[in-house]
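User: Fold this one for me? It's TetR/AcrR family transcriptional regulator.
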Amino acid sequence: MVTSGAYPLRRTPTQDRASRQVERILDAACAEVVERGYDAASTSGIAKRAEIAVGSVYRYFPDKRSLIQAIERRNQARYTDAVRERLADVTSWRAAVDVTLDTFREMHRTDPGFKAVVLSGLGDPELEAKPGEFDDQHAGEFAELLAARFGARDSRDFRLAVTLSITMGEALAHLADRLSADEAEYVLDQGRPVLYNLLAPHLPA
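Assistant: Here's what I get for TetR/AcrR family transcriptional regulator.
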């Protein structure tokens, strides 16, 4: 098993055409999971959607589980890139928390594959190489940003607070997205200060 970009593959695509085929397989897998659910999704159905032979799927992914893992890793890479870009001009740590939460909500609403194969422990924990894999990665990056740009005092408790705020923020986003607009606004207005309060003791006043 080799790694290409954000996710492991059985073999590395050596041409742009092959790389595009891998992305088409992942897009087809997203559509299959959105329409049929993870349990009912099949590699033959994914191959049909991608308009390729099922053997072409197995060339890169040994089974359905590895396909969904690849989607999770692609989601994580896209989410991380989007957050990093949007944080470039942020001038306060509270705004950084808002950007992280709002980006998750936006991708959850607009990207069917992101919504169907959710990040972190809110999805199938068996899809993670280790428990909390995706939360831990993002929490580590966010902790480093808060320390480097906003003077957070790095410590074990600070890292735990960041991980907790990331996990709670995702749960908050999922709850808001299944409520009416008014209810979602209320939930977010109540939830954001909780996230701030978790982090505030570790940042300058």
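One thing worth pointing out: The chain has two domains: 12-62, 68-202.
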